[in-house]
Amino acid sequence: MVYSLIGKASPAPILYSDIKKITDLNLDVLNINNLSGIEYFTALTDLKCNSNKLTTLNLSKNTALTSLECDSNNLTTLYSIKDTWDTYNYRPQYTDSTHTTSTDSLVITIKK
What we know:
Blueprint: H1 2-6, H2 16-19, E1 24-26, E2 46-48, E3 56-58, E4 67-69, E5 77-80, E6 92-95, E7 101-103, E8 107-110
Parallel strand pairs: 1-2, 2-4, 3-5, 5-8
Antiparallel strand pairs: 6-7, 7-8
């Protein structure tokens, strides 16, 4: 998916200069089990990664991110600097004073 966005073919290396201006990624239904490297997409404002096999998602370096869709994964941990993500599908049970929201199947840890 990233290769098609930047006009390269695998296995050519993906450079920071190739991705630094990408603001929108739609990675829905691609059978992805991790998004390592997502931290390099520093201009990313909109991320869709629904219906994959993600268990952990670290978005703490994606400070421009304003829209996130990650339904239908196996997420147990989501790291973010944003403390207002919609957790509709995860039925939050409580929010403690450190801004960690625990749910039946997801823990959102806010990094400040």
